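Supplementary Note 3. Input sequence used for the single-chain structure prediction.
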Amino acid sequence: MPSRSARADVARGGIPASPLPPRYGVDAQRFRMPQSGPWATLRDHLVQRLATGLTAAEVDAMLVAGAFVDAAGDPVAADAPFVPRSVVWAHRDLPVEVPLPFELNVRHRDERLVVVDKPHFLATMPRGDHVVNSALARARVLTGIPALAPAHRLDRPTAGLLLFTTEQRWRGAYQTLFARGLVHKEYLAVAPVRSDLELPLVRHTRLAKEHGVHQAFEVAGEPNAETLIELIAHEGDRGLYRLTPRTGRTHQLRCQLNGLGIPIEGDALYPSEIDVAPDDFTRPLQLLAAVLEFDDPVDGTRRRFETHRTLAAWPTHTAD
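The predicted structure, written as discrete structure tokens, is reproduced below.
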């Protein structure tokens, strides 16, 4: 049975908090046992479950070392029986990652929120080959706050403002703001200028993205994506745009500008996908999340955060 303290530390929705602290800013992995199965021991289940990433000998070594723990944080015995619907946690080996030569900067920190200025090429969440090199992992290490969690996400190629909550109790309120479109967001982008395009304009389109396909597409049908597009500076056939999305679809800004015939500079996905080496940081996407503004859901104050970053292709301009 989990200890009283472990039972009290159950996150909303009935998911217990991990008894293991993050390692390098990365959470331990949670393994919930199925409701039934043919396994006599926990070890037998883990060997089958983890076969694509670990050998049986490696699972055995982790069990002997006490790497798998129960809800109270106690190591699971190597010969522990299989218990349906029980849960164990463990830290998995981290992938070998290409070093990212850019810093994550903290723009604001208080009791409830941490706002960072994310560089290009840094994923928001640990995933795939980008685990320690994720904004979440780096921000946890930088701030020393293990419960830090993102209230929204930015694409890995996009730089700029990213908001985290400091504790579970604040998470739902701020995530709901973003989910309901109650956060005013402004982006800066460098893209070609079309002399025949009348600006400013509001782009209304329907975006669709298929599972397993990297690109999103504008398709026929009722619009589900809306963006105010303004040209705020230009030099020859290149321009600096302010983009104010009123919805939050995947790749919305990149896809909509591409649909207008003005794809964002440095985009390796639009108008066509380009294979870029993992260690090639020479051509960042010229898209910057410049402003976040909202009424705080906890105390009602008006919050506004502005980036201190600039775009390499237009280094003289930041958020106004």
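Residues 114 and 164 are 5 Å apart (CA to CA). Residues 168-179 form the longest helix (12 residues).
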